[in-house]
Amino acid sequence: MKSLRPLFVSTRLWLALIAFVLLFVAAYALPFLFPLVQVAFVVLVILIGVDGWLLFRTKAGVFARRELPDRLSNGDQNPLAIYLENRYVFRADVEVIDEIPFQFQRRDVLFRTQLSPRETRAIAYELRPTRRGEYNFGAINVFVLTPLGLLKRRYQFEQGKTVAVYPSFLQMRQYELLAATNRLTEVGVKRIRRIGQSTEFEQVRPYTTGDDIRTINWKATARRTVMTDRDPRGASLMINAYQDERSQPVYCLIDKGRVMQSPFDGLTLLDYAINASLVLSNIALIKQDRAGILTFSDHIGQLLPADRRTGHMLKILELLYRQKTRFLETDYESLYASVRTHIRQRSLLLLFTNFETVSAMHRQLPYLRRLAKDHLLLVIFFENTELRSLLDQPAADTEQIYLKTIGEKFTFEKKQIVKELSQYGIQTILTAPQNLTANTINKYLELKARGMI
């Protein structure tokens, strides 16, 4: 019986058996059909035998393996691939079912293809995880059919593989590449006009869109033009690049309280904050600043002091990977005490949290003012995008008018929070979750360009 476990009946054979049942029934009414149906049934049995022999005569007729990254990026489309090899001597119809982790809640990872003899093919697809942690992949189930298509033989490969889902390192690499090539504007990061700059010369480089025209080096431009006069396409303006102020401490303070558990597009606000913190920390290191992390909820979580030594980015990634939401009220008094004790140098503090009402902000305002007194504090909280979509729809009845009125009240309170924090000299960002990373980097570059850190 164990040898028959890989054997399955195809849809074509089931349809043929149903057809023969109907023919045998019809033969009782028309006896002359009975010998013909018997002969046809014997032929079907012979074909089933031949089909089974073709499938099982080769011990390993198909080979498959899953091309899986060492870790997956949370909130991003991660590329995966299944490689198939047909070792049969005939063209095989193949059905592939990949047993992906239950966290994806998908049962449609089914692929159908045809493989010629000795042909190799790759099936590419993508998965988007929305939770950090360990994901367990099951087996790759490969069902093979011969050209007759009556029986199926199942092969199973790579059972029980575990992969960790980390914060969005794919997004981090994308921003890192764009920052290195001066193309951050492609993802919504604005060019910030520098108000004053360090006089320490760094290099002469080609002009790119958004550079200050006052830094054009006309002598270098003239020399480059002379060198490329035979090929005018190679000519370009050259500018003087100056070093930014370096080694400024930049801390991401991440609230893990219940206010950060709200979902948006499959991810929680905490996951958006973690992904943005990872990207911003990497940009800060590229800008030669020092990046640190502090997590907190009803008590202080983990503190990673600001640094920029080799391997520090890996420490940040591992720290953010382990963070989980706590369903308790956030203790800002403990946050202030911890910052006062462990962060002595004036730093840029990016506080990722969420305030739904003005009264909720007022309860924490004394601690925010104390933090802003010793450091440059940037409070980052979130718009309710579902509420915005409700307000954009016209009201059709009294109930919808009532709901829109309440929605307008909450939207107004968010704007009032921004205004009140600004009155105390506290920088703020009110952003939709999907725009969090770009808006945070924009603000960081703006504060750095203005010399506030």
TrEMBL record:
Keywords of this entry: Membrane, Transmembrane, Transmembrane helix
InterPro entries in the record: DUF58, vWFA_dom_sf
Residue ranges constituting the DUF58 domain according to the UniProt record: 203-378
KW Transmembrane (keyword) present: yes
One of the Pfam families matching this protein, by short name: DUF58
TM region positions: 39-56
Protein name: DUF58 domain-containing protein
Organism this protein belongs to: Spirosoma soli
